[in-house]
Design a protein that fits this description.
The chain has 306 residues and is of the alpha/beta class. It contains 6 helices and 12 strands. The radius of gyration is 22 Å and the shape is globular. The N and C termini lie far apart (65 Å).
């Protein structure tokens, strides 16, 4: 026992010396040691998915893996079950209790009161939010529901616009940096690209916003109504809600995520919303495993789900 105790004591002394050398090295380099509590507290990012068309149940876990492996974050992904088209059940929303950021990619959900309450509690607490594409129409409660006002109100108030219309699923979108915002941190390493996402009409945005990216519809199916729905619209912007940072993009088709600039845009937006520094050349948004864009759902041919 004495010999074992001696070995343990020696090990403890060696560990202490190594720790001292590390701290001295940091101080010599002009860096203060990071408190242990800060080291242990990684941001918790919760993805709320359920869009039934754009495969957020695949694309958002891909982004989550990047955050975990490259940025040391904790992530949780809440999904619609039993199928993505299920409108009234998202499993995993309890993770929002400890979330530092909610990333939302839902479409026309009508959640039960307890699940909706978790989302509203998070948003009403004034915490940062990131939203993608169909989150302009995150909810669709029936007329007469006490939550029907959320159909337009939630997305308009939180993200800056409700669902209005789009330029047609046979069109694509040329994406370009909004010149006045070229130096914004979210745009670091993001360059022009062509998105498969068809352009959403969003102007005028609700309240102050900083437009980051502009989109031009190619082969717009709204050509006869371009005076009402112009083929140029913002496709990414930042704003605030209840004092918290909000980043939103109307892009999000699964094919968009093949583009490095699209993945980087989302990861940069998450870092920015969390108040973290975005790297000078933009975030490393290389997928942890190879990403192959899945087919989007043809809504005329999928089960509705209950």
């Amino acid at each position: 026992m004495k010999a074992q105790g001696a070995r343990l004591t020696a090990q403890a002394i060696t560990a202490a010396l190594l720790a001292a050398f590390v701290v001295c090295g940091l101080l010599a380099a002009g860096a203060a040691p990071t408190p242990v509590a800060a080291q242990a507290r990684a941001p918790h990012v919760v993805f709320v998915t359920g869009d039934d068309e754009y495969r957020s149940e695949i694309t958002m876990p891909m982004i989550a893996a990047i955050l975990e492996q490259k940025y040391g974050m904790r992530t949780s992904v809440a999904i619609s079950t039993p199928i993505p088209q299920t409108k009234n059940n998202i499993v995993g929303l309890e993770a929002l209790e400890s979330a530092d950021l909610m990333v939302m990619f839902t479409r026309f959900r009508a959640l039960p009161d307890d699940q909706l309450a978790r989302i509203m509690k998070y948003v009403d607490a004034g915490k940062p939010v990131v939203g993608l594409r169909t989150s302009t129409h995150a909810f669709l409660y029936p007329e007469g529901s006490p939550h029907a006002a959320l159909n337009d109100g939630f997305s308009r108030d939180v993200f800056g616009q409700k669902w209005i219309t789009h330029h047609g699923s046979r069109s694509t979108t040329d994406v370009a940096v909004h010149a006045e915002s070229a130096q914004h941190p979210v745009l670091r390493g993001v360059s022009a690209f062509q998105a498969r996402s068809w352009l959403y009409h969003v102007l005028p945005l609700n309240g102050p916003a900083t437009i980051l990216l502009d989109g031009t519809s190619i082969n717009s199916q709204q050509a006869a109504r371009h005076d009402q729905y112009p083929p140029q619209q913002p496709v990414a912007w930042t704003r605030e809600h209840k004092g918290a940072r909000v980043f939103f993009t109307t892009l999000g088709h699964p094919t968009d995520f093949i583009q490095e600039s699209m993945r980087r845009l989302v990861v940069n937006g998450i870092l920015w919303a969390l108040g973290r520094e975005v790297p000078a050349g933009g975030a490393d948004a290389t997928p942890i495993t190879p990403y192959f864009a899945p087919e989007s759902f043809d809504l005329s041919k999928v089960p509705k789900g209950e």
